[in-house]
Write a structure and sequence with these properties.
With 335 residues, the protein is mainly alpha-helical. The chain has two domains: 23-127, Glutaredoxin, CATH 3.40.30.10; 135-333. Helices cover 56% and strands 6% of the residues. It has 15 helices and five strands. It has a five-stranded mixed beta sheet, covered by helices on one side. The termini are far apart.
Length: 335
């Protein structure tokens, strides 16, 4: 009798998984504006985004700089509490299951670097110009956008951009934040996530905790390599800022390049690593640059007003554990 019940339960469970998996339709997407896709919308611009997502922050900053209002759809990632990115609500908008997604009159624009270019091109001159007219300056802007962006395989390409160095640096924050997320919620990723390595990573971080992070040799090696790569990118930015002829990357004009780098510095704050890279006399131009970025209204509107309690608790917990454990602090900060 017990075996019969267990067998029936297993069959029912497999049937439910198969049915649900078919309904969560997934497939790769092309980046940029999708003229051939029309989705339901209520406002001219709508944004599906996440508070922690580096790319989401970048698109929000751009829209704030341009004064573009939008309907906000916050999508939780497991880091902020749930796997909403692999559920039908988002998959119907982006079958790749990633954020952010910007809708303009129902047409999606995929990938944040394409979204900021599109939004800046759509904005009127009264809203501000984030793209220089001079072709040489535009070429420089594109270089610094790419130097800060995430690519499809960031882990193996950290030397290519600061954005690619970010995931490795975020690992301790993940270990801190995931403490607030129940295991059963992470389990949804094992059932439906496209890349099973991600839920397995979060399960390992959940079970081992932040204090044991240095004992995870592959992850610790990735973290230290990412720290070196970020230092290299910031050195390049420091040198450029010293010769830019103004406060911003292109000198006097604030552009999409600055939008892209603002979120890099914000992530360093979230992972409690800002002092590692800007402490004391090292990189004074970057320090002044970061202070200027924080003074812009877009920083308050796009970053501070989208704070998330799980992120805040994770950062504070990370700080507290490092303060209480000098060995852990040295392993993470190198000082």
């Amino acid at each position: 009798m017990v075996n019969t019940i267990l067998g029936a339960g297993a069959i029912a469970g497999m049937g439910w998984w198969s049915y649900e998996n078919r309904r969560r339709k997934r497939h790769p997407i092309s980046s940029g504006y999708q003229a051939n896709i029309q989705l339901p919308y209520e406002e001219e611009f709508e944004l599906y985004h996440n508070a922690l997502s580096l790319c989401s922050m970048k698109t929000r900053v751009c829209l704030a700089e341009l004064g573009i209002n939008y309907r906000s759809h916050h999508i939780d990632l497991i880091e902020t509490g749930a796997y909403e990115n692999i559920r039908r609500r988002l998959l119907n908008v982006n079958p790749a299951g990633t954020v952010p997604v910007l809708l303009h009159r129902g047409h999606p624009i995929y990938e944040s670097h394409e979204q900021i270019r599109y939004a800046a091109a759509q904005a009127s001159k009264e809203r501000g110009q984030l793209i220089p007219e001079d072709q040489e300056l535009k070429r420089q802007m594109e270089y610094w956008i790419e130097r800060s962006s995430l690519t499809e395989d960031p882990i193996s390409q950290g030397e290519q951009s600061a954005g690619n160095a970010v995931p490795g640096l975020t690992l301790p924050l993940f270990a801190s934040m995931i403490k607030d997320v129940p295991l059963w919620k992470i389990g949804e990723g094992l059932l439906f996530h496209f890349d099973k390595r991600r839920p397995l990573l979060f399960i390992a971080l959940k079970l081992l905790g932040l204090k044991r992070f240095p004992s995870l040799k592959p992850l610790m090696g990735l973290y230290q390599r990412s720290r070196q790569q970020m230092a290299m990118h910031l050195d390049a930015l420091e040198n450029h800022l010293n010769n830019s002829g103004g406060l911003w990357i292109l000198g006097e004009q604030f552009t999409l390049a600055d939008v892209s780098w603002l979120v890099i510095f914000e992530r360093l704050v979230q992972v409690d690593s800002l002092a590692v890279f800007l402490d004391g006399e090292q990189r004074p131009a970057c320090s002044n640059y970061w202070q200027a970025l924080q003074a812009r209204p877009s920083y308050r509107k796009a970053i501070l007003e989208h704070s998330h309690p799980t992120i805040s608790r994770g950062t504070q917990r990370l700080k507290a554990v490092k303060a209480a454990d000098p060995k852990l602090r040295y392993a993470l900060d190198g000082c």
